[in-house]
Design a protein that fits this description.
389 residues; alpha+beta; Butyryl-Coa Dehydrogenase, subunit A, domain 1; Butyryl-CoA Dehydrogenase, subunit A, domain 2; four-stranded mixed sheet; 10 helices; binds flavin-adenine dinucleotide; flavin adenine dinucleotide binding; FAD; oxidoreductase
Length: 389
């Protein structure tokens, strides 16, 4: 059983503690679905997980509540709990949130009422389409375009590395509308997968299974009421959405770390080396201590960022970037240490720590690579001193 003492921290309300207990109990009871890893039927497994998450009511937390609030601590607790058991289940939950995040945060009441209930019910699969072949880290360089035509818009261009690509029913798509140079000329649109002119170009296989695709828009016409916010606000919408969801990527990494630690700690107690449990060896204890420290420090950064956002902070750019950078980079180290403590068993295909070793890698790249997070943090820190750019 993973460490639960962090739930006593003042970042949480009692409703979060009750929530953490509820989702933990659900996860315990739904081991069969959380054991699906997409190894043989990726899309089918994603749909099975989505249904289970919807039936459990957990997807309701991926969209705002009746008061219009998206509780970041609840999102993080959900991802941490799912991530501890299944990278794919964490992914399915996360994409319902990220894929509909711009609608949750910037949609009109009508847009929210039209598109969010299907996401919460697991009836609509959501995706967030920002990256392009020539615009990944450099979002402002994106070239997919949207031009006005009559009372609607016409989209052209290619997006790549789009999670849920090929599976999603609806995409939030960022395109250049030209109100200004670079980041000032982008807008966000909601596009259904059955719109003429939309196509999935290719599915991209990954080292840890997860639906991903390149998609293309060719003279793809959508109605005027499918723009989110005002024309020219796309970059702000994308960044504000990532501000919320970056902490949750960190929480998924934390879940992976906790699982790796639990697996490794149990192993060192059970495994005997040189006539005694491995856990008696001081170098093994040092490894476990390092892992535990990285886990607690990650949790502190994550729940600080989440708490701050839930208190109504308009942006938590610095805190979310720190949480994402630290928790994902350190999870890589924690998982690597777990593999090492398992010896040969740690690299056997399908072993939990081997699976985590593959699962963690992408988290240091998507939603802003680690280097990008460092730049974000440095800019925030320097701006606080009246410098930087
Ligand atoms: C599994 C997965 C899922 C994804 N899901 C989505 C999705 O759902 N929607 C979406 O829009 N995109 C998605 N992406 C795309 C992801 O956001 C991009 O891969 C990421 O932004 C990096 O862009 P890039 O791959 O083009 O790498 P590049 O931009 O070419 O960067 C390559 C590397 O350069 C380094 N780097 C970047 N900037 C700097 C800098 N300023 N200084 C120094 N080094 C730097 C980093 O190490 C980076 O990894 C996903 C990617 C992956 C791998």
């Amino acid at each position: 059983m993973a460490d639960r003492t962090f739930l006593d921290w003042p970042f949480f309300d009692d409703r979060h503690r009750a929530f953490a207990a509820d989702i933990e109990a659900w996860a315990e009871a739904n081991g069969d679905v959380l054991n699906l890893h997409g190894d043989h039927d990726l899309d089918g497994d994603c749909r099975r997980i989505l249904k289970a998450l919807a039936d459990g009511g957990w997807l309701n937390n991926a969209v705002p509540d009746a008061d219009g609030r998206l509780d970041v601590r609840t999102l993080c607790l959900t991802r941490e709990t799912l991530g501890r058991r299944s990278g794919l289940a964490d992914f399915v939950f996360a994409m319902q949130g990220l894929g509909s995040g711009p609608i949750s945060l910037f949609g009109t009441d009508d847009q929210k009422a039209r598109w969010l209930p299907g996401v919460a019910a697991g009836e609509t699969i959501a995706a967030f389409a920002l990256s392009e072949p020539e615009a990944g880290s450099d979002v402002a360089a994106l070239s997919a375009s949207a031009r006005r035509e009559g009372d609607g818009w016409v989209l052209d261009g290619v997006k790549t590395f789009i999670s849920n690509g090929g599976l999603a029913d609806r995409y939030v798509v960022f395109a250049r509308t030209g109100e200004g140079e670079g980041a000032r000329g982008l807008s966000a649109f909601v596009v259904d997968a059955d719109t003429p002119g939309f196509e999935v170009v290719e599915r991209i296989p990954l080292m840890a299974a997860h639906p991903l695709a390149t998609i293309r828009f060719t003279a793809c016409r959508i109605d005027g009421d499918r723009i989110l916010g005002a024309a020219g606000e796309g970059f702000r919408i994308a960044m504000a959405t990532l501000d919320v969801f970056r902490s949750t990527v960190a929480a998924a990494a934390l879940g992976f770390s906790r699982r790796a630690f639990d697996e490794a700690a149990s192993r060192t107690v059970a495994r005997h080396l040189f006539g005694a449990p491995m856990s008696d060896l001081q170098l093994v204890q040092a490894a476990l201590a390092d892992m535990a420290l990285k886990i607690d420090a990650s949790a502190l950064l994550i729940y600080r960022a989440a708490w701050l956002k839930d208190q109504g902070a308009p942006r938590v750019t610095r805190e979310a970037a720190m949480a994402k950078l630290y928790a994902t980079d350190e999870a890589q180290q924690v998982i690597d240490a777990a593999v090492q403590l398992f010896g040969g068993l740690g690299v056997v295909s399908g072993h939990p720590v081997e699976r985590l070793y593959r699962e963690i890698r992408a988290l240091r790249i998507y939603e802003g690579a680690s280097e990008v997070q460092k730049i974000v943090i440095a800019r925030q820190v320097l701006a606080g001193m009246g410098g930087g750019g």
